[in-house]
């Protein structure tokens, strides 16, 4: 079963900004088993708009 953190990271990697906006109303930067957060994934995948959303959420 996919967790909310996994859905957020997938939305970041794939550029699904609407999903990301809705999902990030709560804390979204929990690390996965490898220590990667949504912020890390957005940076790694070059998803600048996703990174802006995450950083804008504080």
Task: Give structural notes.
- This protein is mainly alpha-helical and 58 residues long.
- It has one domain.
- Helix content is 59%, strand content 0%.
- It is built from 4 helices and no strands.
- It has helices spanning 4-14, 17-23, 38-44, 48-56.
- α1 packs antiparallel against α2 (17-23), α1 (4-14) runs parallel beside α3 and α3 (38-44) packs antiparallel against α4.
- The longest helix has 11 residues, at 4-14.
- The radius of gyration is 10 Å and the shape is globular.
- The model has no long low-confidence stretch (mean pLDDT 82).
- One of its GO terms (cellular component) is host cell presynaptic membrane.
- Pfam families: Ank_4.
- ANK repeats lie at residues 34-58.
- Keywords: ANK repeat, Exocytosis, Membrane, Neurotoxin, Presynaptic neurotoxin, Target cell membrane, Target membrane, Toxin.
- It is found in: Target cell membrane.
List the main descriptive attributes of the protein structure presented here:
58 residues; mainly alpha; 4 helices; globular
Total discrete domains: 1
Give me the number of helical elements: 4
Mean pLDDT: 82
Helical fraction equals: 55-70%
The fraction of residues assigned to DSSP E strands is under 5%
Largest sheet: none
Q: Ranges with pLDDT <50 over ≥5 residues?
A: none
The secondary structure category is mainly alpha
Kindly, what is the distance between the CA atoms of the first and last residues, rounded to a whole number of angstroms?
28 Å
Cα radius of gyration in angstroms? 10 Å
What is the approximate shape?
Answer: globular
Number-wise, the strands total: 0
Give, in order, the helices and strands.
HHHH
Keywords: ANK repeat, Exocytosis, Membrane, Neurotoxin, Presynaptic neurotoxin, Target cell membrane, Target membrane, Toxin
Pfam families: Ank_4 (PF13637)
GO cellular component, one term: host cell presynaptic membrane
Subcellular location: Target cell membrane
């Amino acid at each position: 079963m996919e967790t909310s953190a996994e859905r957020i990271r997938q939305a970041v990697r794939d550029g699904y900004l609407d999903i990301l906006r809705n999902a990030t109303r709560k804390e979204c930067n929990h690390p996965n088993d490898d220590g990667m957060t949504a912020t890390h994934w957005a940076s790694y995948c070059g998803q600048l708009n996703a990174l802006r959303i995450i950083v804008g959420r504080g």
